[in-house]
Inverse folding.
């Protein structure tokens, strides 16, 4: 069957929607849709309802901006976590990556992206001002800047450093066990854990 000629408008519409997902071409989209058609109605309904519920009911933590089911996420509301140390990350996937190392017991701050002029993303589009406000409360001792070691990640690190360098907070960054150009979510847990444990003062990374 020619992939551009569908026997059903409903099938074509479903394929078009799946093909909008990142990394999913039209052939993969067709394969996924046909798989769903082989499932019973209850299973497909559960699949669809889970996506609708996710989009309509998901929240962002009012403290760290991580995705959450409640106004304050489970990490921020956990009294056993060290609230004086905050790890700054790009997105929820990076929170999950750091958590998987089991080497960090502090809190997080999710920026929601990194500075990228090519993509039209500037500091005002990120949760940087809210990070400054958290620091201004005086409860945070250390900020760990755990962004990807790309040009955009380094630019964002430096911007945050400029915003916080005169405040009474220690600024650190991951040890360079995370290779230059690596995105955090693709770094293996052992390497990321060691880079987190062996973090260094941010100023020592300038000029390298």
């Amino acid at each position: 069957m020619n992939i551009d000629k569908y026997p059903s408008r409903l099938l074509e519409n479903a394929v078009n929607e799946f093909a909008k997902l990142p990394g999913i071409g039209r052939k993969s989209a067709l394969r996924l849709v046909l798989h769903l058609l082989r499932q019973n109605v209850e299973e497909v309904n559960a699949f669809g309802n889970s996506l609708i519920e996710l989009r309509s009911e998901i929240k962002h933590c009012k403290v760290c901006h991580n995705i959450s089911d409640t106004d304050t996420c489970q990490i921020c509301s956990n009294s056993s976590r060290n609230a004086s140390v905050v790890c700054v990350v790009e997105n929820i996937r990076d929170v999950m990556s750091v958590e998987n190392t089991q080497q960090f017991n502090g809190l997080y701050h999710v920026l929601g992206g990194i500075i990228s002029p090519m993509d039209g993303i500037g500091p005002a589009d990120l949760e940087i001002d809210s990070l400054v406000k958290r620091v201004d409360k005086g409860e945070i001792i250390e900020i760990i800047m755990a962004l990807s070691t790309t040009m955009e990640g380094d630019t964002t690190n430096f911007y945050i450093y400029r915003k916080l360098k005169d405040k009474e907070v220690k600024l650190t960054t991951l040890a360079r066990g995370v290779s230059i150009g690596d995105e955090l979510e693709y770094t293996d847990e052992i390497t990321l854990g060691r880079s987190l444990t062996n973090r260094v003062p941010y100023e020592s990374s300038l000029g390298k």
In short: The chain is about 40% helix and 15% strand.
